[in-house]
């Protein structure tokens, strides 16, 4: 089986924003309410941060339970690790993801400020200054024979799309308008020149857009 | 996490038949053409019997790649193992599933004619004369902490639905009429008194029906 680079469960607003304006430590999505943007995830039985036994097991759950399926590594932009910009502050802050991050694999954090790897729970974060194709090569090697997940955020996704490196994309368009922030695209047909495209409305109100290539 | 009993990728015709009339060794689906009924599976990248690297990775592929996801055992009716009826013939026939069956777990075959377990490749078939709830208890024990797949066929699915034992169902309605054969239901709303229900049309022409309960 070929090793894929997969974007999964990436939420955008109807007007194409993956995060609002003014991201900060307290507000990872800026002025956007996370529940508006990615609340469909939280409602599913297989949501990776679920702590109680409830949740739906319909269409949306197929997407959240595929999060870890055959994934051996993740690549994320620095802004998905934390809100700092520029040189790393000399503190012991260990990222957005708590004591047991949901990745459980090597995670490659793209940054112009490399630093020593950091192990948090079962996840090790590697901070690398690398072009998309070099980062993908490292992540594939770390993933064994499994696939690599592209975690985001918006700027990182755009960079990897432009470089033609992503094999499959799952983007969930939420029924909310943000007006400003980090813009992924002008609309879901923007990738149709490069990918097959399934449009799948869900009873939760989001529309799942699935892209793949031959 | 609770251990679930899951029906997955079960194909029926628009008029509710899971197999045609006249099932035999050469024609496991009777007068029905398997490609009409379950051809949507064959077209996906993750179809369990795929031998070449092609295939689609859109909506339908989420269903085929969930086939083995967190599954630790299967229960199937005798008619899914082979076409024989009554006492087993004294031969060395080893079922429909070839030298390397796609299950790779213990499989419990329901029959009124128990016989010794049979290992084929990485799959061991256990032939048990048991009521649905007893069979499920054995399969759950064999599955460790994973879920159990209900494999079919139609009569077995109906029996387990009647007994209230199935937690989630995925039934794919194909755009074909069979007129006669093994009938699963009068229509997709038949289970709505007992389950939540998502209706998901696919670009392949099938409509996926997903059922779950609280």
Automatic annotation (TrEMBL), chains A, B:
Q: Which Pfam families does the record associate with it?
A: RibD_C (PF01872)
Which terms under GO biological process does the entry name?
riboflavin biosynthetic process
GO MF annotation list: 5-amino-6-(5-phosphoribosylamino)uracil reductase activity
InterPro entries reported for this sequence: DHFR-like_dom_sf, RibDG_C, Riboflavin_Biosynth_HTPR
* Segments forming domain Bacterial bifunctional deaminase-reductase C-terminal: 66-187
Report the superkingdom from the record: Bacteria
Q: Which PANTHER family match?
A: BIFUNCTIONAL DEAMINASE-REDUCTASE DOMAIN PROTEIN, DIHYDROFOLATE REDUCTASE FAMILY PROTEIN (AFU_ORTHOLOGUE AFUA_8G06820)
| Name assigned to this protein | Deaminase
């Amino acid at each position: 089986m070929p090793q894929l680079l997969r974007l999964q469960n990436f939420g955008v607003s109807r007007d194409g924003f993956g995060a609002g304006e003014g991201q900060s430590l307290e507000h990872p999505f800026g002025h956007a309410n996370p529940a508006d943007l990615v609340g469909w995830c939280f409602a599913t039985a297989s949501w990776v941060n679920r702590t109680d036994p409830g949740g739906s097991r319909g269409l949306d759950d197929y997407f959240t339970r595929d999060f870890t399926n055959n994934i051996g590594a993740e690549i994320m932009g620095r802004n998905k690790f934390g809100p700092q910009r520029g040189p790393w502050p000399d503190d012991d802050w260990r990222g957005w993801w708590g004591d047991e991050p949901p990745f459980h694999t090597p995670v490659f954090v793209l940054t112009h400020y490399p630093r020593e790897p950091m192990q948090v729970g079962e996840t090790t974060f590697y901070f690398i200054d690398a072009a998309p194709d070099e980062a993908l090569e490292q992540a594939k090697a770390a993933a064994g024979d499994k696939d690599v997940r592209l975690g985001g955020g918006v700027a990182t996704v755009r960079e990897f799309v432009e470089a033609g490196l992503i094999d499959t994309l799952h983007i969930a368009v939420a029924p909310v308008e943000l007006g400003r922030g980090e813009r992924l695209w002008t609309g879901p047909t923007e990738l149709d020149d490069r990918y097959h495209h399934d449009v799948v409305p869900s009873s939760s109100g989001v529309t799942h857009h699935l892209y793949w290539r031959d």
